[in-house]
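Data deposition worksheet. Section B asks for the primary sequence of the deposited chain exactly as it was used as input, without tags or linkers unless they were present during the calculation. Section C holds the resulting structure in token form. Section D is free text for depositor observations; keep each observation to a single sentence. Incomplete worksheets are returned to the depositor.
Section A, Depositor: J.P.
Section B:
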Amino acid sequence: MRLSFCGNDNASAYNISAGVLRNVCFVDALNLVPHVFLLFITFPILFIGWGSQSSKVQIHHNTWLHFPGHNLRWILTFTLLFVHVCEIAEGIVSDTQMKSRHLHLFLPAIMGFVAATVSIVYYHNIETSNFPKLLLALFLYWIMAFVTKTIKLVRYCQDGVPFSQLRFCITGIMVILYGLLMAVEINVIRVRRYVFFMNPQKVKPPEDLQDLGVRFLQPFVNLLSKATYWWMNTLIISAHKKPVDLKAIGKLPIAMRALTNYVCLKEAYEEQKKKVADQPNRSPSIWLAMYSAFGRPILLSSTFRYLADLLGFAGPLCISGIVQGFQNTTNNTNTTEKVKNPSNSYLSSEEFLRNVYVLAVLLFLALLLQRTFLQASYYVTTETGINLRGALLIIMGVILLYNLLGVSALVGAAVIVLLAPIQYFIATKLAEAQKSTLDYSTERLKKTNEILKGIKLLKLYAWEHIFCTSVEETRMKELTSLKTFALHTSLSIFMNAAIPIAAVLATFVTYAYTNDRPLQPAQAFASLSLFHILVTPLFLLSTVVRFAVKAIISVQKLNEFLLSDEIGDDSWRGGDSSVAYESCKKHTGLHTKAINRRQPLRYQLESYEQPTKKQTRPVETDDIAIKVTNGYFSWGSGLATLSNINIRIPTGQMTMIVGQVGCGKSSLLLAILGEMQTLEGKVHWSKLPDRQMNAEGYFSVNESEPSFEASRRNRYSVAYAAQKPWLLNATVEENIIFGSPFNKQRYKAVTDACSLQPDIDLLPFGDQTEIGERGINLSGGQRQRICVARALYQNTNIVFLDDPFSALDIHLSDHLMQEGILKFLQEDKRTLVLVTHKLQYLPHADWIIAMKDGMVLREGTLKDIQNKDIELYEHWKTLMNRQDQELEKDMEADQTTLERKTLRRAMYPRESKSQLEDEDEEEEEEEDEDDNMSTVLRLRTKMPWKTCWRYLTSGGFFLLFLMIFSKLLKHSVIVAIDYWLATWTSMDNANEVRNVDDVKSTNKTYHVAVFSILSGAGIVLCLITSLTVEWMGLTAAKNLHHNLLNKIILGPIRFFDMTPLGLILNRFSADTNIIDQHIPPTLESLTRSTLLCLSAIGMISYATPWFLVALVPLGIAFYFIQKYFRVASKDLQELDDSTQLPLLCHFSETAEGLTTIRAFRHEARFKQRMLELTDTNNIAYLFLSAANRWLEVRTDYLGACIVLTAAVTSITEGPNSGFVGLGLLYALTITNYLNWVVRNLADLEVQMGAVKKVHSFLNMESENYDGYLDPSQVPKDWPQEGEIKIENLCVRYENNLKPVLKHVKAYIKPGQKVGICGRTGSGKSSLSLAFFRMVDIFDGRIVIDGIDISKLPLHTLRSRLSIILQDPILFSGSIRFNLDPECKCTDDRLWEALEIAQLKNMVKSLPGGLDAMVTEGGENFSVGQRQLFCLARAFVRKSSILIMDEATASIDMATENILQKVVMTAFADRTVVTIAHRVHTILTADLVIVMKRGNILEYDTPENLLSQEDGIFASFVRADM
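Section C:
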């Protein structure tokens, strides 16, 4: 058939006698002109212009400047493209009904499509380069296109073409579209004035885009990129090369920042407050405030959502149409088609929509659009107004079903609706189970934590198993509640899978028996697809109701919080905290103008937060800094805690506040700071003259420098050190400087005054070491000194110190008093208010305030009080004497050195901490250190299959097999159900054509029976699979935790010295939680969606094998999408988690230190930090959700392509109409499940990290517990004598380390008291550990009572010796449990032990006696008492050998004397080895061993050693005197 433009079957085609414009063909040709014109003009510009430009100029995103009408233009262009597609389709369909080809029917439309595409590409390029003059070409194009189309429309009107004809409608719509586009173009000219005007308007891109730090471009890109997340490509591809970090994701655009939204919401809330101001019983509504602040995006989102849901119904309708059309064509092939008259080549819309290929394309486009809307709605807000949606969806769905199937559809719908409440019930049960699981796991963690903290003691006493069992018991309880959790999870999964099957079964069986007409494939598959749509809202209903309830409760709580009282405004403090709204009242450009990017956030915040007129504190005379008159203050209860306070605090002098515990000293400070509620009275602050900074030379600065500004700003702030030290989670330096400028000289002076230097030197990174919540733990004294240093360092006139000496020993207190207070502060002429109990410092005070019971008892100088109140003065004197006596005692027990020692001990086993922090890194990376790109790349994209396999097998092979088998079976049955439906409906149709009645009825029964059996089997299998997955997950979790616990408990002590406690605890908390609760559902979801997709692809390929060919490119695309996404998603998920922690920590530490922050006047700084951290977390979260959208858009479009190919192949190749329906139904399910496959894969990959970390501990070596001797061969009462021979002993901690003891020889007679001394690191403690084989004895041996200890089983050896450690360790539980966890002893024996340790009376006085509770770590006893408990514990174990490892190091003199006495009397007949910290404790010993560097230097009685003047022992004793 020859091609010709106007067709060659009609002679009149080229006839123009009636006028050129009367010829249809000519008008069509005329329509080609504008399109061709545009292509000719734009191609050279696009290719030549941009080619040369892009090479020269890297177009950065700051040029993304939208011309007016930007979004409207994109929408119109897309509509235009869609109409062009319709026009092409209409032309082709009309053409097929002609005798010869008529190119004029569709060629102009194709050219129009190309031109429209080019126009938008061209526009986009002009816009990015901001060169509007070139838009003229487009303007001309729109005018020409508009004119030619109008000619065509007029021509149709003259011909009298009816409006019902499709071609007429299309032409009409196009005229409108071209007209609108022309209007948009005119508008651009009007606004930008780039042509026809003298002065074109200069426009700058939005502020965010001028800042290269902003990488989140969603708000700024064009519509297409917005819809498909095209701008994310660069990030996701770069994630492949190097991990995504915070730098890569940049910062938030201004409109999304916390500050912007905070101001927005605050204004809205204030509006609400104003509205209800005159109605006292109504409270302002947060809901309305949120709606008015953020209502627009929420509305927009729900609109998108509704559109998407409505488009969702296109699927079933198109399926129905395609199957129907396919059936008609197959049934009508034998009837001859009439060929249309060429002059009447017009199609009506109905005829057009009956064409199956048209329907396939429409389905494809509808899917694309639906998915785009869906993703857009997710981005704008996640899940809003879901309940309404659900209702709407269900109503629509039921109406459509009723149309398809009549009454029987209602039966199916009823099944769904009736089963929904069960879903809800399961959901509530789930929440309960989760809560109880949480309680048990908290308890288990507490126990595990105790074990890890006291692991050394447990090993030395061979008590590991007792404690291990107690953890296992709690774990069993936790697993029981996990079982209920798993049961309910699997039930809800089962319900979700079974409801659609049950509904379909009910519907089709009812239909078969109530209707005479057999079931049509078109009806069957359309309704199946509808049922799938219906189940989704019900699926979500249960969760939604739960969330809604939570949201309502949360908002109520928020409202209560926002309406609660704030600190009184009558104090000067009100000046800063009440916000001036006037400064940013509703000016339109709030987002851009009010927030200036150039300034740091802090100043902006302050400019928002501060009223224009700064209210100063009321002014008083000069020599008094603060004066309180007639003050009554309360802690918000209305009862005055402080009453009748009249005091004055002199400027530049030291005021001391003294009094008994609880008389209101700290409260007085807080009342002055404005933290308490003032019932009556006033606090006056004097206005001080500006300080002369340079007098001291600490702070010599030029006027212009910012630090000077800072000091001026701090004039009214107070440096305050609270009684309970409060540290920031930051470095030591940051804690001391606290936001002030750094001045080296001053910093050094302060740290010296607080004697912090030695402590700082111990820290691994000096003063750059992180301390606080997540940093290194410091002792109370060290924390307190840092807080005092902070107060001293701040450049303020007034310093408040609240009992700074409480946690310090005498040397430090004196040093701080002399250097810090008398020297540093007094020289600086700062006003100091000091609360203290140390009365010996009273003589230093310039002014004293004595308090009693919340009132001021006396006020004045020490002389005044001495003269006026002799009684008080005498009372003070006696107290001072008593304190002096304590001092002498105290001088010996030097607390600080002890604190430093503990710090050193905490620090130095951790040399390897830094190496351990990388333990989460891939193990493979450590193996091949060549850190080249390819290996890293490979590791980042590789799924951890090995770990997955380990996890699956830890659940047991039987369960694994059962799970795989039942899964496969279930999916086969589900496919079989649909397959059976296809054959049944096709058969019925064939029968109907043949009209065989009796065959039909038997057939019906047979078909219905098989269908019911299959459906029943499907439902049962759903239950079985969901149960097996959860069951397998539980077993795996149980085994992994059990193995982990046992492995850790039996680990060598060196492991605990090297591994930070937090790291081990993490395995038991976070990782175990993931394994318990997160992996099973992810695994279930992953297998389900993967199998669904595979069965769908299998089914389509079975129906139409050609589909496989089309599948290859789609498969490749899918592989790359998931590969790139997984890597980026993993990084972004980690970023999201890691940015959340600092935010929560910052929040809790701010709440803790509120008084300090307010006293320092640093509210703005902390608020700003809070906003910054929120922004950081938000940007990570936004990118994570954008990456998810990126993936979903891609997989959805792939799914749409699969639907299109499936539809086209099945129409051309399909065996019968039933299978066409089946193929399409399955293709539609793929679109829903493809992205779940990838999402679950990514989640599983992250979660498998937990399994991997647990496994890394499982590969650790345990201690060797079995000995050569059987426990039964060891005599029951060994060791009886307590004779110890040490022969040539060599010891090391690990076989790759240097020996710590070298060839040590010693002999200890039974019952001897031996002292071992030496400097730190001389091997004293290693020797004591060697007795218990806690270290590796690689040469020589220790023989106790004739048995070589290396031959004994560890448990036997350790259970027969006793040791008292340096740090007293108690466990939570009863006192009885702490003395004798094995419950072997009688009560008399325990009381005897307590009496020996001189604790009997104290324990008797406790409620419950021996059963009195010990809190965690024994916190409810003093250190000395704890040490005595340890002594009693050692006594209870009747062993003939006792080892004391520096046991007296951490106790005071009194307790130490008790200990010494007890050892001499109660242990008179036992062998005692004492490792001495202070030499005088072993002067009474029978034998002294002096060690140095792992060797014995001196070995004799103390008398002999003392007689050697130049001996080491003698020098030790001299130093200790």
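Section D:
The chain has a mean pLDDT of 80.
The chain has 53 helices and 21 strands.
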